[in-house]
Amino acid sequence: MRTDRRNFDILVLGAGLAGLRAAWAALEENPGARVAVAAVSDAPSGSSFANIHDRLGMQVCFTDNDAADLAAEVLAVGRPGHVDPILAEVLAADSLARFEDMRSLGVPFLRGQDGNLALFSGCFSPHSRRAVVFEDLGAAFRAFRGKIADLGGVFLSGLTARGIIVADGAARGALFACGEQETPLAIAAGAVVLALGGPAPLFAWSQAGPRNPGWSYALLARAGVRMVNQGYLQYMWGQVPSRRFWPLAQHAGQGLRVRDRDGSFVPLPADLAGLATARGTHCPFGFGLHDAALDRFLLAHRQADGTVEAATDAEGPLRIAPMAHAGNGGALVDAHGRTSLPGLYACGECASGMHGANRIGGAMVLATQVFGARAGRHAAACLKKNPETSDTSFTELRISDAATDPKARQEVERKLALFLQRSVAMQKTPALRDVLRATGRLCEAAGDWQAKLALEAGLTVMNHVASLN
Ligand SMILES: Cc1cc2nc3c(=O)[nH]c(=O)nc-3n(C[C@H](O)[C@H](O)[C@H](O)COP(=O)(O)OP(=O)(O)OC[C@H]3O[C@@H](n4cnc5c(N)ncnc54)[C@H](O)[C@@H]3O)c2cc1C
Q1: Is residue 342 located within the same domain as residue 257?
Q2: C-beta separation of 307 from 203 below 8 A
Q3: Could you tell which of 48, 99, 148, 370 is best to mutate to test the pocket of ligand 1, judged by most ligand atoms within 8 Å of the CB?
Q4: I need a labelling partner for 108 at 20 to 30 A (CA). Which of 141, 153, 188, 443 fits?
Protein backbone atom coordinates (compact mmCIF):
# COMPACT_ATOMS: atom_id res chain seq x y z
CA MET A 1 0.00 0.00 0.00
CA ARG A 2 1.37 3.37 -1.02
CA THR A 3 0.46 6.28 1.22
CA ASP A 4 0.84 9.75 -0.20
CA ARG A 5 3.65 11.54 1.60
CA ARG A 6 1.62 14.70 1.98
CA ASN A 7 -1.15 15.06 4.49
CA PHE A 8 -3.90 17.40 3.46
CA ASP A 9 -6.00 19.33 5.91
CA ILE A 10 -9.12 19.01 3.79
CA LEU A 11 -9.56 16.51 1.00
CA VAL A 12 -12.47 17.24 -1.35
CA LEU A 13 -13.63 14.31 -3.46
CA GLY A 14 -15.18 15.42 -6.76
CA ALA A 15 -14.80 18.49 -8.98
CA GLY A 16 -18.44 19.32 -9.70
CA LEU A 17 -20.23 22.45 -8.49
CA ALA A 18 -20.44 21.06 -4.95
CA GLY A 19 -16.82 19.97 -4.58
CA LEU A 20 -15.36 23.14 -6.08
CA ARG A 21 -17.62 25.33 -3.95
CA ALA A 22 -16.52 23.45 -0.82
CA ALA A 23 -12.82 23.88 -1.65
CA TRP A 24 -13.30 27.59 -2.37
CA ALA A 25 -15.06 28.16 0.97
CA ALA A 26 -12.47 26.17 2.92
CA LEU A 27 -9.60 28.20 1.46
CA GLU A 28 -11.35 31.48 2.17
CA GLU A 29 -12.19 30.50 5.74
CA ASN A 30 -8.71 29.25 6.52
CA PRO A 31 -6.17 30.66 4.03
CA GLY A 32 -3.35 28.57 5.45
CA ALA A 33 -5.23 25.28 5.06
CA ARG A 34 -3.87 22.64 2.72
CA VAL A 35 -6.92 21.89 0.58
CA ALA A 36 -6.90 19.37 -2.25
CA VAL A 37 -9.60 18.51 -4.78
CA ALA A 38 -9.33 14.96 -6.11
CA ALA A 39 -11.23 13.95 -9.23
CA VAL A 40 -11.24 11.42 -12.02
CA SER A 41 -10.23 13.95 -14.63
CA ASP A 42 -8.86 17.43 -15.30
CA ALA A 43 -11.67 18.06 -17.79
CA PRO A 44 -15.18 19.27 -16.92
CA SER A 45 -17.00 16.28 -15.46
CA GLY A 46 -20.24 15.11 -13.90
CA SER A 47 -23.67 16.68 -14.21
CA SER A 48 -22.51 20.15 -13.17
CA PHE A 49 -20.04 20.98 -15.86
CA ALA A 50 -20.54 18.44 -18.63
CA ASN A 51 -24.27 17.78 -18.90
CA ILE A 52 -25.99 17.54 -22.27
CA HIS A 53 -28.00 20.77 -21.90
CA ASP A 54 -24.94 22.99 -21.33
CA ARG A 55 -27.10 25.19 -19.11
CA LEU A 56 -28.33 25.04 -15.53
CA GLY A 57 -31.06 26.74 -13.55
CA MET A 58 -30.69 27.81 -9.94
CA GLN A 59 -33.27 29.01 -7.43
CA VAL A 60 -32.45 32.40 -5.89
CA CYS A 61 -34.51 34.16 -3.21
CA PHE A 62 -34.30 37.91 -3.75
CA THR A 63 -36.67 38.81 -0.89
CA ASP A 64 -37.68 37.40 2.49
CA ASN A 65 -41.00 36.40 0.94
CA ASP A 66 -39.18 34.45 -1.76
CA ALA A 67 -37.18 32.66 0.93
CA ALA A 68 -40.28 31.76 2.94
CA ASP A 69 -42.01 30.52 -0.23
CA LEU A 70 -39.08 28.39 -1.36
CA ALA A 71 -38.61 26.79 2.06
CA ALA A 72 -42.34 25.97 2.25
CA GLU A 73 -42.38 24.55 -1.30
CA VAL A 74 -39.29 22.41 -0.65
CA LEU A 75 -41.08 20.81 2.31
CA ALA A 76 -44.39 20.39 0.48
CA VAL A 77 -42.96 18.67 -2.60
CA GLY A 78 -40.36 16.76 -0.57
CA ARG A 79 -42.85 14.72 1.40
CA PRO A 80 -43.16 11.80 1.95
CA GLY A 81 -39.39 11.77 1.61
CA HIS A 82 -37.14 12.78 4.51
CA VAL A 83 -36.86 16.56 4.31
CA ASP A 84 -35.58 18.68 7.17
CA PRO A 85 -37.23 22.11 7.71
CA ILE A 86 -33.94 23.57 8.96
CA LEU A 87 -32.09 22.56 5.83
CA ALA A 88 -34.93 23.92 3.67
CA GLU A 89 -34.66 27.28 5.47
CA VAL A 90 -30.89 27.36 5.16
CA LEU A 91 -31.14 26.55 1.45
CA ALA A 92 -33.42 29.51 0.89
CA ALA A 93 -31.65 31.91 3.28
CA ASP A 94 -28.15 31.49 1.78
CA SER A 95 -29.28 31.50 -1.84
CA LEU A 96 -28.76 35.19 -2.65
CA ALA A 97 -25.24 35.30 -1.19
CA ARG A 98 -24.19 32.18 -3.11
CA PHE A 99 -25.68 33.57 -6.33
CA GLU A 100 -23.72 36.81 -5.82
CA ASP A 101 -20.56 34.73 -5.30
CA MET A 102 -21.12 33.04 -8.65
CA ARG A 103 -21.70 36.39 -10.32
CA SER A 104 -18.44 37.62 -8.84
CA LEU A 105 -16.70 34.74 -10.66
CA GLY A 106 -18.21 35.91 -13.94
CA VAL A 107 -20.60 32.96 -14.37
CA PRO A 108 -22.79 34.08 -17.31
CA PHE A 109 -26.40 34.29 -16.12
CA LEU A 110 -29.02 34.90 -18.81
CA ARG A 111 -30.49 38.37 -19.22
CA GLY A 112 -33.78 39.38 -20.78
CA GLN A 113 -34.16 41.80 -23.70
CA ASP A 114 -34.38 44.66 -21.21
CA GLY A 115 -30.89 43.78 -19.95
CA ASN A 116 -32.16 42.65 -16.55
CA LEU A 117 -31.50 39.24 -15.11
CA ALA A 118 -33.95 36.75 -16.66
CA LEU A 119 -36.12 34.94 -14.09
CA PHE A 120 -37.91 31.65 -14.71
CA SER A 121 -40.32 29.33 -12.93
CA GLY A 122 -38.97 26.00 -11.73
CA CYS A 123 -40.33 22.47 -11.99
CA PHE A 124 -42.93 21.75 -9.27
CA SER A 125 -43.12 25.51 -8.69
CA PRO A 126 -44.99 26.78 -11.76
CA HIS A 127 -46.09 30.11 -10.30
CA SER A 128 -42.76 31.29 -8.92
CA ARG A 129 -40.24 33.42 -10.84
CA ARG A 130 -37.09 32.81 -8.82
CA ALA A 131 -34.87 30.69 -11.05
CA VAL A 132 -31.85 32.12 -12.83
CA VAL A 133 -30.09 30.26 -15.64
CA PHE A 134 -26.44 30.15 -16.67
CA GLU A 135 -24.91 28.72 -19.81
CA ASP A 136 -21.48 27.60 -21.02
CA LEU A 137 -20.74 25.11 -18.27
CA GLY A 138 -17.13 24.73 -19.45
CA ALA A 139 -16.55 28.45 -18.76
CA ALA A 140 -18.16 28.09 -15.32
CA PHE A 141 -15.82 25.16 -14.58
CA ARG A 142 -12.75 27.20 -15.51
CA ALA A 143 -13.94 30.11 -13.38
CA PHE A 144 -14.39 27.91 -10.28
CA ARG A 145 -11.07 26.15 -10.81
CA GLY A 146 -9.26 29.43 -11.35
CA LYS A 147 -10.62 30.78 -8.09
CA ILE A 148 -9.42 27.74 -6.14
CA ALA A 149 -6.00 27.82 -7.78
CA ASP A 150 -5.68 31.56 -6.94
CA LEU A 151 -6.46 30.75 -3.31
CA GLY A 152 -3.73 28.08 -3.21
CA GLY A 153 -5.86 24.93 -3.60
CA VAL A 154 -4.29 21.80 -5.10
CA PHE A 155 -5.88 19.68 -7.87
CA LEU A 156 -5.20 15.97 -7.89
CA SER A 157 -6.47 14.60 -11.19
CA GLY A 158 -6.64 11.08 -12.53
CA LEU A 159 -7.69 9.70 -9.15
CA THR A 160 -10.79 7.55 -8.73
CA ALA A 161 -11.98 7.44 -5.13
CA ARG A 162 -12.75 3.88 -4.08
CA GLY A 163 -13.04 4.15 -0.33
CA ILE A 164 -13.22 6.46 2.66
CA ILE A 165 -10.52 5.72 5.19
CA VAL A 166 -12.05 5.46 8.64
CA ALA A 167 -9.81 5.27 11.70
CA ASP A 168 -10.76 5.72 15.37
CA GLY A 169 -14.37 6.34 14.38
CA ALA A 170 -13.64 9.25 12.04
CA ALA A 171 -12.92 9.88 8.37
CA ARG A 172 -9.16 10.21 7.93
CA GLY A 173 -8.66 10.28 4.19
CA ALA A 174 -9.55 8.37 1.06
CA LEU A 175 -8.34 5.50 -1.00
CA PHE A 176 -7.91 5.93 -4.76
CA ALA A 177 -7.30 3.96 -7.90
CA CYS A 178 -4.95 5.85 -10.19
CA GLY A 179 -5.05 4.95 -13.86
CA GLU A 180 -3.75 1.54 -14.72
CA GLN A 181 -1.62 1.36 -11.59
CA GLU A 182 -2.56 -1.71 -9.60
CA THR A 183 -1.63 -0.46 -6.16
CA PRO A 184 -4.25 1.81 -4.64
CA LEU A 185 -3.18 5.19 -3.34
CA ALA A 186 -4.13 6.34 0.16
CA ILE A 187 -4.26 10.06 0.93
CA ALA A 188 -4.61 11.25 4.51
CA ALA A 189 -6.63 14.28 5.56
CA GLY A 190 -8.01 15.91 8.67
CA ALA A 191 -11.45 16.15 7.07
CA VAL A 192 -12.99 14.72 3.92
CA VAL A 193 -15.72 16.39 1.84
CA LEU A 194 -17.52 13.89 -0.33
CA ALA A 195 -18.96 15.57 -3.44
CA LEU A 196 -19.05 12.70 -5.91
CA GLY A 197 -22.46 13.31 -7.48
CA GLY A 198 -25.33 10.84 -7.69
CA PRO A 199 -26.21 7.37 -8.95
CA ALA A 200 -27.84 8.30 -12.29
CA PRO A 201 -24.81 7.17 -14.37
CA LEU A 202 -25.45 3.59 -13.25
CA PHE A 203 -28.69 3.40 -15.25
CA ALA A 204 -28.96 2.11 -18.81
CA TRP A 205 -30.60 5.40 -19.78
CA SER A 206 -29.31 8.51 -18.07
CA GLN A 207 -28.74 12.20 -18.72
CA ALA A 208 -25.94 12.46 -16.14
CA GLY A 209 -22.67 14.03 -17.20
CA PRO A 210 -19.59 11.90 -17.99
CA ARG A 211 -16.65 10.81 -15.82
CA ASN A 212 -18.72 9.85 -12.82
CA PRO A 213 -18.83 6.10 -12.09
CA GLY A 214 -21.88 6.62 -9.84
CA TRP A 215 -20.48 5.01 -6.70
CA SER A 216 -21.14 7.73 -4.10
CA TYR A 217 -23.93 5.81 -2.32
CA ALA A 218 -21.75 2.69 -2.06
CA LEU A 219 -18.82 4.64 -0.60
CA LEU A 220 -21.14 6.27 1.94
CA ALA A 221 -22.76 2.95 2.84
CA ARG A 222 -19.40 1.25 3.33
CA ALA A 223 -18.33 4.07 5.64
CA GLY A 224 -21.49 3.40 7.67
CA VAL A 225 -22.99 6.84 6.99
CA ARG A 226 -26.72 7.41 7.53
CA MET A 227 -28.48 7.90 4.21
CA VAL A 228 -31.97 8.98 3.19
CA ASN A 229 -34.10 9.29 0.05
CA GLN A 230 -31.85 7.06 -2.09
CA GLY A 231 -34.77 5.70 -4.11
CA TYR A 232 -36.13 9.14 -5.00
CA LEU A 233 -34.32 9.62 -8.24
CA GLN A 234 -35.64 12.04 -10.80
CA TYR A 235 -36.47 10.57 -14.19
CA MET A 236 -37.37 12.48 -17.34
CA TRP A 237 -38.58 11.13 -20.64
CA GLY A 238 -35.84 11.51 -23.20
CA GLN A 239 -35.60 10.62 -26.85
CA VAL A 240 -33.39 7.68 -27.87
CA PRO A 241 -30.59 7.83 -28.84
CA SER A 242 -30.03 11.58 -28.24
CA ARG A 243 -31.16 11.35 -24.56
CA ARG A 244 -32.60 14.85 -24.95
CA PHE A 245 -35.67 15.81 -22.94
CA TRP A 246 -38.96 14.77 -24.56
CA PRO A 247 -41.88 16.78 -23.11
CA LEU A 248 -44.51 14.17 -22.31
CA ALA A 249 -47.14 16.74 -21.32
CA GLN A 250 -46.92 18.44 -24.71
CA HIS A 251 -47.15 15.16 -26.62
CA ALA A 252 -49.96 13.72 -24.52
CA GLY A 253 -52.37 16.03 -26.33
CA GLN A 254 -51.05 15.18 -29.80
CA GLY A 255 -52.41 11.70 -30.44
CA LEU A 256 -49.76 9.91 -28.37
CA ARG A 257 -49.78 6.13 -28.82
CA VAL A 258 -47.40 3.39 -27.73
CA ARG A 259 -46.48 -0.06 -29.02
CA ASP A 260 -48.25 -2.77 -27.03
CA ARG A 261 -47.00 -6.32 -26.32
CA ASP A 262 -49.00 -7.69 -29.27
CA GLY A 263 -47.20 -5.29 -31.62
CA SER A 264 -50.11 -2.91 -32.19
CA PHE A 265 -50.10 0.78 -31.18
CA VAL A 266 -52.52 1.69 -28.39
CA PRO A 267 -53.68 5.26 -27.78
CA LEU A 268 -53.25 7.08 -24.51
CA PRO A 269 -56.53 6.57 -22.56
CA ALA A 270 -58.65 9.74 -22.56
CA ASP A 271 -58.63 10.11 -18.76
CA LEU A 272 -54.81 10.15 -18.79
CA ALA A 273 -54.63 12.73 -21.56
CA GLY A 274 -56.53 14.98 -19.15
CA LEU A 275 -53.55 14.91 -16.80
CA ALA A 276 -51.28 16.60 -19.32
CA THR A 277 -51.78 20.10 -17.90
CA ALA A 278 -50.67 19.05 -14.41
CA ARG A 279 -47.79 17.04 -15.88
CA GLY A 280 -46.67 20.14 -17.76
CA THR A 281 -45.64 21.84 -14.52
CA HIS A 282 -42.64 19.57 -14.02
CA CYS A 283 -40.18 17.81 -16.34
CA PRO A 284 -39.28 14.90 -14.00
CA PHE A 285 -41.85 12.28 -12.95
CA GLY A 286 -43.72 13.46 -9.85
CA PHE A 287 -43.50 10.98 -7.02
CA GLY A 288 -46.94 10.50 -5.43
CA LEU A 289 -48.68 13.01 -7.74
CA HIS A 290 -51.83 12.14 -9.72
CA ASP A 291 -50.20 12.91 -13.02
CA ALA A 292 -47.64 10.11 -12.39
CA ALA A 293 -50.35 7.88 -13.93
CA LEU A 294 -49.21 9.22 -17.31
CA ASP A 295 -45.63 8.07 -16.67
CA ARG A 296 -46.86 4.71 -15.37
CA PHE A 297 -48.82 4.15 -18.57
CA LEU A 298 -45.67 4.60 -20.63
CA LEU A 299 -43.57 2.53 -18.23
CA ALA A 300 -46.02 -0.35 -18.57
CA HIS A 301 -45.12 -0.47 -22.25
CA ARG A 302 -41.36 -0.68 -21.81
CA GLN A 303 -39.39 -3.19 -23.83
CA ALA A 304 -36.49 -5.29 -22.56
CA ASP A 305 -33.95 -2.52 -23.21
CA GLY A 306 -36.00 -0.07 -21.13
CA THR A 307 -37.25 1.97 -24.11
CA VAL A 308 -40.82 2.63 -25.25
CA GLU A 309 -41.82 2.75 -28.90
CA ALA A 310 -44.18 5.69 -29.26
CA ALA A 311 -45.76 7.76 -31.99
CA THR A 312 -47.46 11.15 -32.10
CA ASP A 313 -49.35 12.95 -34.85
CA ALA A 314 -46.66 15.61 -34.98
CA GLU A 315 -43.55 13.41 -34.82
CA GLY A 316 -44.53 9.98 -36.16
CA PRO A 317 -42.80 6.93 -34.64
CA LEU A 318 -39.95 7.43 -32.20
CA ARG A 319 -38.27 5.74 -29.24
CA ILE A 320 -38.21 7.22 -25.77
CA ALA A 321 -36.90 6.07 -22.39
CA PRO A 322 -37.09 7.24 -18.80
CA MET A 323 -33.71 8.90 -18.31
CA ALA A 324 -32.21 8.85 -14.82
CA HIS A 325 -31.53 12.55 -14.30
CA ALA A 326 -30.42 13.32 -10.73
CA GLY A 327 -30.79 11.67 -7.34
CA ASN A 328 -32.52 13.40 -4.45
CA GLY A 329 -30.94 11.07 -1.88
CA GLY A 330 -27.59 10.58 -0.22
CA ALA A 331 -25.93 11.17 3.12
CA LEU A 332 -28.21 12.89 5.60
CA VAL A 333 -26.36 16.08 6.48
CA ASP A 334 -26.86 18.84 9.02
CA ALA A 335 -26.78 22.56 8.32
CA HIS A 336 -22.95 22.44 8.13
CA GLY A 337 -22.86 19.53 5.69
CA ARG A 338 -21.72 17.08 8.38
CA THR A 339 -22.65 13.43 7.92
CA SER A 340 -23.16 10.94 10.74
CA LEU A 341 -19.44 10.02 10.48
CA PRO A 342 -17.18 12.53 12.27
CA GLY A 343 -14.75 14.20 9.86
CA LEU A 344 -16.86 13.36 6.82
CA TYR A 345 -18.89 16.05 5.07
CA ALA A 346 -21.13 15.54 2.04
CA CYS A 347 -22.59 18.06 -0.39
CA GLY A 348 -24.29 18.24 -3.76
CA GLU A 349 -26.07 15.31 -5.31
CA CYS A 350 -24.68 12.80 -2.81
CA ALA A 351 -26.16 14.69 0.17
CA SER A 352 -29.79 14.90 1.19
CA GLY A 353 -32.26 16.23 3.72
CA MET A 354 -32.71 19.53 1.83
CA HIS A 355 -34.67 17.60 -0.82
CA GLY A 356 -37.13 14.75 -0.43
CA ALA A 357 -39.32 12.77 -2.80
CA ASN A 358 -39.61 15.60 -5.34
CA ARG A 359 -37.33 18.58 -5.73
CA ILE A 360 -38.03 22.12 -6.95
CA GLY A 361 -36.27 22.78 -10.28
CA GLY A 362 -33.02 24.66 -9.68
CA ALA A 363 -32.81 23.58 -6.05
CA MET A 364 -30.01 21.08 -6.68
CA VAL A 365 -27.61 23.60 -8.16
CA LEU A 366 -28.52 25.87 -5.26
CA ALA A 367 -27.83 23.02 -2.81
CA THR A 368 -24.37 22.46 -4.32
CA GLN A 369 -23.53 26.11 -3.59
CA VAL A 370 -25.18 26.49 -0.19
CA PHE A 371 -24.10 23.21 1.36
CA GLY A 372 -20.79 23.03 -0.51
CA ALA A 373 -19.87 26.42 0.97
CA ARG A 374 -21.12 25.46 4.42
CA ALA A 375 -19.26 22.14 4.43
CA GLY A 376 -15.98 23.70 3.30
CA ARG A 377 -16.27 26.56 5.75
CA HIS A 378 -17.11 24.33 8.71
CA ALA A 379 -14.32 21.85 7.97
CA ALA A 380 -11.80 24.70 7.70
CA ALA A 381 -13.05 26.42 10.86
CA CYS A 382 -12.74 23.16 12.84
CA LEU A 383 -9.15 22.82 11.70
CA LYS A 384 -8.38 26.32 12.95
CA LYS A 385 -9.66 25.26 16.37
CA ASN A 386 -7.99 21.82 16.36
CA PRO A 387 -4.94 21.98 14.09
CA GLU A 388 -3.67 18.64 15.38
CA THR A 389 -6.53 16.79 13.63
CA SER A 390 -4.82 17.44 10.30
CA ASP A 391 -1.70 15.46 11.25
CA THR A 392 -3.27 12.24 10.23
CA SER A 393 -1.73 8.86 9.83
CA PHE A 394 -3.21 5.42 9.60
CA THR A 395 -1.23 2.30 10.14
CA GLU A 396 -3.20 -0.54 8.68
CA LEU A 397 -5.60 -0.69 5.77
CA ARG A 398 -7.20 -3.92 4.76
CA ILE A 399 -8.63 -3.92 1.27
CA SER A 400 -9.68 -6.60 -1.11
CA ASP A 401 -8.20 -5.68 -4.42
CA ALA A 402 -9.58 -8.38 -6.66
CA ALA A 403 -9.96 -7.31 -10.26
CA THR A 404 -11.39 -9.27 -13.17
CA ASP A 405 -10.91 -8.60 -16.81
CA PRO A 406 -12.61 -5.43 -18.09
CA LYS A 407 -15.00 -7.39 -20.32
CA ALA A 408 -16.42 -9.33 -17.36
CA ARG A 409 -16.80 -6.09 -15.43
CA GLN A 410 -18.59 -4.39 -18.31
CA GLU A 411 -20.99 -7.31 -18.55
CA VAL A 412 -21.88 -6.99 -14.85
CA GLU A 413 -22.30 -3.24 -15.21
CA ARG A 414 -24.53 -3.72 -18.26
CA LYS A 415 -26.76 -6.10 -16.33
CA LEU A 416 -26.93 -3.72 -13.39
CA ALA A 417 -27.84 -0.84 -15.73
CA LEU A 418 -30.79 -2.81 -17.11
CA PHE A 419 -31.87 -4.00 -13.65
CA LEU A 420 -31.88 -0.42 -12.42
CA GLN A 421 -33.75 0.67 -15.50
CA ARG A 422 -36.45 -1.86 -14.65
CA SER A 423 -36.73 -0.48 -11.12
CA VAL A 424 -37.66 2.98 -12.43
CA ALA A 425 -41.36 2.56 -11.73
CA MET A 426 -41.06 4.59 -8.49
CA GLN A 427 -43.33 2.10 -6.81
CA LYS A 428 -43.09 -1.38 -5.39
CA THR A 429 -43.76 -4.00 -8.04
CA PRO A 430 -43.19 -7.78 -8.12
CA ALA A 431 -40.63 -7.11 -10.85
CA LEU A 432 -38.63 -4.97 -8.42
CA ARG A 433 -38.36 -7.91 -6.01
CA ASP A 434 -36.95 -10.10 -8.78
CA VAL A 435 -34.52 -7.43 -9.87
CA LEU A 436 -33.35 -6.92 -6.29
CA ARG A 437 -32.69 -10.63 -5.83
CA ALA A 438 -30.80 -10.85 -9.12
CA THR A 439 -28.69 -7.80 -8.28
CA GLY A 440 -27.96 -9.20 -4.82
CA ARG A 441 -26.75 -12.45 -6.39
CA LEU A 442 -24.52 -10.56 -8.83
CA CYS A 443 -23.08 -8.57 -5.95
CA GLU A 444 -22.28 -11.67 -3.90
CA ALA A 445 -20.57 -13.27 -6.87
CA ALA A 446 -18.68 -10.17 -8.05
CA GLY A 447 -14.94 -10.40 -7.52
CA ASP A 448 -14.05 -7.17 -9.25
CA TRP A 449 -13.93 -4.19 -6.88
CA GLN A 450 -15.32 -1.69 -9.38
CA ALA A 451 -18.25 -3.91 -10.29
CA LYS A 452 -18.91 -4.45 -6.60
CA LEU A 453 -19.03 -0.72 -5.87
CA ALA A 454 -21.45 -0.18 -8.76
CA LEU A 455 -23.66 -3.05 -7.60
CA GLU A 456 -23.69 -1.85 -3.99
CA ALA A 457 -24.63 1.67 -5.13
CA GLY A 458 -27.43 0.24 -7.27
CA LEU A 459 -28.67 -1.88 -4.38
CA THR A 460 -28.98 1.13 -2.08
CA VAL A 461 -31.33 2.70 -4.65
CA MET A 462 -33.40 -0.44 -5.21
CA ASN A 463 -33.63 -1.31 -1.51
CA HIS A 464 -34.97 2.13 -0.75
CA VAL A 465 -37.55 1.91 -3.54
CA ALA A 466 -38.58 -1.50 -2.18
CA SER A 467 -39.01 -0.01 1.30
CA LEU A 468 -41.45 2.68 0.12
CA ASN A 469 -45.17 2.27 0.71
C1 LIG B 1 -28.98 17.15 -17.98
C2 LIG B 1 -29.10 17.66 -16.57
C3 LIG B 1 -29.65 18.91 -16.34
C4 LIG B 1 -29.78 19.38 -15.03
N5 LIG B 1 -30.33 20.60 -14.83
C6 LIG B 1 -30.43 21.10 -13.58
C7 LIG B 1 -30.89 22.41 -13.36
O8 LIG B 1 -31.20 23.14 -14.31
N9 LIG B 1 -30.97 22.85 -12.08
C10 LIG B 1 -30.63 22.08 -11.01
O11 LIG B 1 -30.74 22.52 -9.88
N12 LIG B 1 -30.16 20.83 -11.21
C13 LIG B 1 -30.03 20.33 -12.46
N14 LIG B 1 -29.51 19.10 -12.66
C15 LIG B 1 -28.95 18.38 -11.51
C16 LIG B 1 -27.62 19.03 -11.14
O17 LIG B 1 -27.00 19.54 -12.29
C18 LIG B 1 -26.67 18.03 -10.49
O19 LIG B 1 -27.36 17.29 -9.54
C20 LIG B 1 -25.51 18.77 -9.82
O21 LIG B 1 -24.84 19.59 -10.76
C22 LIG B 1 -24.57 17.78 -9.20
O23 LIG B 1 -23.43 18.46 -8.73
P24 LIG B 1 -22.35 17.66 -7.89
O25 LIG B 1 -21.19 18.57 -7.76
O26 LIG B 1 -22.97 17.12 -6.67
O27 LIG B 1 -22.00 16.39 -8.77
P28 LIG B 1 -21.35 16.32 -10.27
O29 LIG B 1 -21.44 17.60 -10.97
O30 LIG B 1 -21.96 15.13 -10.91
O31 LIG B 1 -19.83 16.07 -9.96
C32 LIG B 1 -19.34 14.88 -9.42
C33 LIG B 1 -17.84 14.95 -9.44
O34 LIG B 1 -17.30 13.81 -8.79
C35 LIG B 1 -16.39 13.14 -9.66
N36 LIG B 1 -16.42 11.74 -9.28
C37 LIG B 1 -17.49 10.92 -9.20
N38 LIG B 1 -17.13 9.72 -8.72
C39 LIG B 1 -15.80 9.79 -8.50
C40 LIG B 1 -14.85 8.89 -7.94
N41 LIG B 1 -15.20 7.67 -7.55
N42 LIG B 1 -13.57 9.32 -7.82
C43 LIG B 1 -13.20 10.58 -8.18
N44 LIG B 1 -14.06 11.48 -8.70
C45 LIG B 1 -15.33 11.07 -8.86
C46 LIG B 1 -16.88 13.44 -11.05
O47 LIG B 1 -15.88 13.22 -12.00
C48 LIG B 1 -17.26 14.92 -10.87
O49 LIG B 1 -16.11 15.72 -10.89
C50 LIG B 1 -29.36 18.60 -13.95
C51 LIG B 1 -28.79 17.35 -14.18
C52 LIG B 1 -28.66 16.87 -15.47
C53 LIG B 1 -28.05 15.53 -15.69
Answers
A1: no
A2: no
A3: 48
A4: 153
- For residue 168, the surrounding DSSP H or E stretch is none
In this predicted structure, what is the pLDDT of residue 275?
94
Residues, the chain: 469
Ligand 1, atom 31, lies closest to the CA of 16
Decide whether any atom of ligand 1 lies within 6 Å of the 47 Cβ: yes
Residue range of the domain that includes 138: 2-232+328-390
Residue 401 domain flag: no
The Cα-based distances of 456 to 5, 33, 449 in angstroms read 31, 34, 10
Residue 365 one-letter amino acid:
V
Q: Which residues pair with 338 in a beta bridge?
A: 345
- Angstrom distances, CA of residue 433 to CA of 25, 61, 417: 44, 42, 16
* Pocket lining: 161 vs ligand 1, CB cutoff 6 Å: yes
DSSP label at residue 40: S
Residue nearest to atom 9 of ligand 1 (CA): 362
Q: Which residue's CA lies nearest to atom 30 of ligand 1? A: 46
Nearest to 337 by CA among 6, 115, 25: 25
- Can you tell me whether residue 160 is helix, strand or coil? strand
| Mutation pick for ligand 1 pocket among 56, 157, 354, 456 (CB with most ligand atoms within 8 Å) | 56
Residues 291-342: tens digit of each pLDDT: 999 999 999 999 989 999 999 988 889 999 999 999 999 999 999 999 999 9
Greatest alpha-carbon pair distance for the chain in Å reads 70
**DSSP state letters, 47-65:** HHHS-TTSEEEEE---SHH
Domain boundary (390, 418, 433) is at 390
Side chain identity, residue 295: D
List beta partners, residue 117. Answer: 111
Residue whose CA lies nearest to ligand 1 atom number 4: 56
Give the nearest ligand 1 atom to 351 CA: 26
450 lines ligand 1 (CB under 6 A): no
- Count up the domains in the chain and report the number: 3
More confident residue, 402 or 63: 63
Rounded to two decimals, what is the model's pTM?
0.96
Considering the domain architecture, whether residues 208 and 350 belong to the same structural domain is answered as yes
Compute the distance between CA of residue 119 and CA of residue 140 in angstroms, rounded to an integer: 19
* 225 lies in the same domain as 361: yes
Helix (H, G, I), strand (E, B) or coil at 351: strand
Ligand 1 centroid to residue 368 C-alpha, Å? 9
